[in-house]
Design brief:
The complex is a heterodimer of chains A (89) and B (582). Chain A is α+β, with helices and mostly antiparallel strands and 89 residues long. Helix content of chain A is 35%, strand content 26%. Chain A has a single domain (2-86), classed as Histidine-containing Protein, Chain: A, CATH 3.30.1340. Chain B is of the alpha/beta class and 582 residues long. Classes of the chains: A alpha+beta (89), B alpha/beta (582).
């Protein structure tokens, strides 16, 4: 299992569209993916879980993945977040 | 009698038309027990309904991408993800197995659990996502009750022009269908201004008022409605004078929008085919966003003083954050960041510039780059923030109020030091970031080639340049009459500067008030200016003049005027420029 942290930098934070992209991205890996904010940890493949993180811009999130492609999962999700979810802001 | 109902105006705009009440079957969700040996059958009933609902959404998504764009389709994608989320399907299945209840009820009690969680959220936007979950679950329940086919939403007329649809609530998918059929406006009883349907209505420009309580009972099929999305009001049964009043508002706004829209899409070309760069002066995010929306060529002047006027001087990270916001709002268009331009009329409590305060004549004192070259820590912090921002987008750095080549050299030395510091820290920057200078000092204007030789681009700050050239403060009403952009000395000065820039192929922009004042647009074109930067609110009106100007003819008229000698005073330059166009 590997873990890391990442900060939400896009303007709207994990709003519905960004959350959907995140869930779609995480669902593309066979590894289990968990995302945490403070004490709270949710399944990264669940839209409801990701939305209820209510992570606005500047929120630091913990990423955790376990499975054969865990490293790729973390790297890809991190890249998506750091690319402002492809929204350019 | 006119009835006025209020709600949330979720989409600006006015609609006048006939009410159509879209009756939605309110589902009665009952609870009943199932036998233990029927559990598997009930679970597959649930799974079938989930799958059917999902297939419907996928079909809808394809369809609305074509009619309403990707934003609508992405909202539907979110609904699809919700449908497939284990907290709906798996959790409901678990309830069926544990509680031996019917699938409809299992979904309903799971919905209550999920909504309770969403209601806790502080963020209003996230809280509103509970509505999406409820809509998605209702879709599945509708499938289960087989009521899906006789919902009167499907019986809505094919063409809805001049029709205002009144409904209890609306999903984004339904809204997209109404849009396809040309609906004039929408009134709903429920739905927050943050609901997906509301966001979609706004982005599609459909006038809409949401959250009008009891709209369905208070309004009558076929009666005339006026919907005012700006005020969030729906008027039922208005009298003729009131309707005419709204028709007039509708006509004038659509005329205005149409004329602007026509220009907005046109490239900024003069009649003789000269391409003109139109950039914005902006600092607030909404100004930058407006600049991006108006198809401008980016921000030609991003002022940074506001960062220093909030209290303590901002650190590097705070500045970087602001610059990144501006870069993101511009979506790929270039951002020209001007370094701190404090002094004279703009001072900051945050900075203890005893030298500044003691100055006898602040306009001629320690200000702008002079101040920055004195407080090099402050300046280098800003240069590092700008350099780091340059790694994230197209950034140019602009230094205000240069007087001498010596100052340019000092700036370049500090910039080199800032780069070296970032390299040691391992932080990214664009090594090719352009450095430009503002020409505001008359002596610098007459030595524009000397300064330009060391810089990548120039920007002319006409406000200060004219003030210094005319020795008149335009804010001082006793001498404001002397502040005349058409003074032959000023025109000659500008003429000299643009000629020098053209000869040395130095990119030059005007970013003062003159650039955004349509009265002088033709003069600036005649002088050879091909790049303007102005308040974004002025972009379209200046563009309009550009589209109607033959630049070469204007230049010839200007040359004629400059050669008139002392007789010039009898000839209006602006009139001459206008006449040259005929």
């Amino acid at each position: 299992m590997i873990s890391s942290t990442v900060t939400i930098i896009n303007k709207l934070g994990l709003h519905a569209r960004a959350a959907s992209k995140l869930v779609n991205c995480a669902s593309g890996f066979s590894a289990q993916v968990w995302i945490s904010r403070g004490e709270r940890e949710i399944n990264g493949k669940s839209i409801m879980g990701v939305l209820t993180l209510a992570a606005g811009r500047g929120t630091e999130l913990g990423l955790r993945a376990a499975g054969s492609d865990e490293a790729a999962a973390i790297a890809t999700i991190t890249a998506l977040i750091e690319d402002y979810f492809g929204e350019g802001e | 009698m006119t009835l006025a109902l209020t709600g949330h105006g979720v989409s600006r705009g006015i609609a006048i038309g006939q009410a159509h009440l879209a009756e939605r079957n309110e589902l009665e969700i009952g609870e009943y027990r199932i036998l233990a040996n029927n559990v598997d059958a009930e679970v597959s009933r649930l799974r079938d309904a989930l799958r059917t609902a999902r297939e419907q959404l996928e079909l809808l998504s394809d369809r609305v991408t074509r009619s309403a764009g990707t934003a609508a389709s992405e909202m539907i994608q979110t609904h699809i993800l919700m449908l497939t989320d284990s907290s709906i399907g798996d959790a409901a299945e678990q309830r069926i197995r544990d509680e031996l209840c019917n699938a409809e009820w299992a979904l309903q009690s799971q919905l209550e659990t999920i909504l309770a969680e969403f209601r806790h959220m502080e963020d209003e936007y996230i809280r509103s996502r509970g509505e999406d979950v409820a809509q998605v679950i209702r879709m599945v329940q509708t499938e289960l009750s087989k009521a899906g086919t006789d919902r009167s939403f499907d019986s809505i007329p094919d063409r809805l022009a001049d029709t205002l649809v009144v409904t209890t609530e609306l999903t984004p998918g339904e809204l997209a269908l109404l849009h396809e059929r040309g609906v004039a406006g929408i009134v709903t009883e429920h739905g927050s201004p943050y609901s997906h349907a509301a966001i979609l209505a706004s982005s599609l420009g459909i006038p809409a008022v949401f959250g009008v309580r009891l709209a369905h009972s208070l309004l009558t099929e076929g009666e005339t409605l006026i919907l005012d999305g700006r005020l969030g009001v729906v008027y039922a049964d208005p009298d003729d004078a009131f309707i005419e009043h709204y028709h007039e508002i509708e006509r004038s706004t659509s005329r205005f929008r149409k004329s602007l829209d026509e220009i907005r899409r046109k490239p900024a070309l003069t009649l003789d085919g000269e391409a003109i760069l139109l950039q914005a002066n902006a600092e607030r995010e909404d100004e930058i966003r407006l600049a991006a929306e108006l198809d401008s060529d980016g921000v030609g002047l991003y002022r940074t003083e506001f960062l220093f006027m909030r209290g303590a001087a901002p650190d590097e990270a705070t500045q970087l954050q602001e610059y990144l916001v501006a870069i993101a709002a511009l979506a790929g268009k270039p951002l020209t960041i001007r370094t701190l331009d404090l002094g004279a009329d703009k001072t900051s409590e945050a900075l203890d510039f005893s030298l500044l305060r003691s100055s006898m004549n602040p306009a001629l004192g320690l200000r702008a780059i002079r101040l920055c070259l004195r407080d090099t820590d402050l300046f280098k912090t800003q240069l590092r923030a700008i350099l780091r921002a340059s790694a994230a987008g197209k950034v140019r750095c602009l230094v205000p109020m240069l007087t001498s080549v010596h100052e340019v050299r000092m700036v370049k030395t500090l910039l080199d030091e800032a780069r070296a510091e970032l390299q040691i820290r391992g932080q990214a920057y664009d090594p090719l970031m352009q450095l430009g200078g503002m020409i505001e000092v008359p002596a610098a204007a007459l030595a524009i080639e000397d300064l330009g030789y060391h810089l990548d681009f120039l920007s002319i700050g006409t406000n200060d340049l004219l003030q210094y050239a005319l020795a008149a403060d335009r804010v001082d009403e006793q001498v404001a009459h002397l502040y005349d952009p058409l003074h032959p000395g000023v025109v000659r000065l500008l003429h000299y500067m643009f000629a020098a820039c053209t000869e040395t192929r130095m990119p030059v922009t005007v970013c003062g008030e003159l650039a955004g004042d349509r009265r002088y647009t033709r003069l600036l074109l005649a002088l050879g200016l091909r790049s303007f930067s102005m308040h974004p609110g002025r972009l379209l009106e200046v563009k309009q003049v550009i589209l109607e100007t033959h630049a070469n003819r204007a230049a010839a008229a200007l040359a004629h005027w400059l050669n008139l000698g002392a007789q010039r005073q009898d000839v209006s330059l602006l009139r001459l420029l206008d006449q040259s166009q005929k």
